[in-house]
């Protein structure tokens, strides 16, 4: 898989942020980011896992159901779905991300975007969006 974030401001920010990195807040942000992708390029199979991840206390969906559906989605014949499912599997199994895990998740999401848009269309836009969000977490 291509390293989509290697030459982005986001990569530099995540490398510099390691000492002020709040892995739980970044995890929540990346779950919301996957939801944002889902709103643009929806997959029915991701609805229950996203409900579990965003409303785990009030969700009627169990971890097992959400994880199973994500595992199925990761093996489907649609590359963008596979990538979002892989990102969500990382997020469902980790409560607090490291900066490296965050990069991995973001790379999966960017890979999914690349199935629907050219790099010129999404890299700068998404890099700016995530930099602003992560910078606000880092700086409190």
List the helices and strands and how they pair.
Elements: H1 9-16, H2 23-40, H3 47-54, H4 63-74, H5 79-92, H6 99-114, H7 119-139
Helix pairs in contact: 1-7, 2-3, 2-5, 2-6, 3-4, 4-5, 5-6
Describe the structure.
This protein is mainly α and 140 residues long. Helices cover 69% and strands 0% of the residues. It has helices at 9-16, 23-40, 47-54, 63-74, 79-92, 99-114, 119-139. Helix 1 (9-16) packs parallel to helix 7 (119-139) and helix 2 runs parallel beside helix 6. The longest helix has 21 residues, at 119-139. It is globular. The termini are far apart.
Search tags:
140 residues; globular
| Structural Rg | 14 Å
Please count the beta strands (DSSP E, at least 2 residues each): 0
Mean pLDDT: 93
Structural class: mainly alpha
**N-to-C CA distance:** 33 Å
Order of helices and strands: HHHHHHH
User: How much helical structure, as a percent, in the residues?
Assistant: 55-70%
Strand count, sense and barrel status of the largest sheet are: none
Give the overall silhouette: globular
The parts where pLDDT drops under 50 for at least 5 residues are none
Q: Count of helices?
A: 7
Strand content: under 5%
Brief overview, please?
The protein has helices at 9-16, 23-40, 47-54, 63-74, 79-92, 99-114, 119-139. The protein is an all-alpha fold and 140 residues long. The N and C termini lie far apart (33 Å).
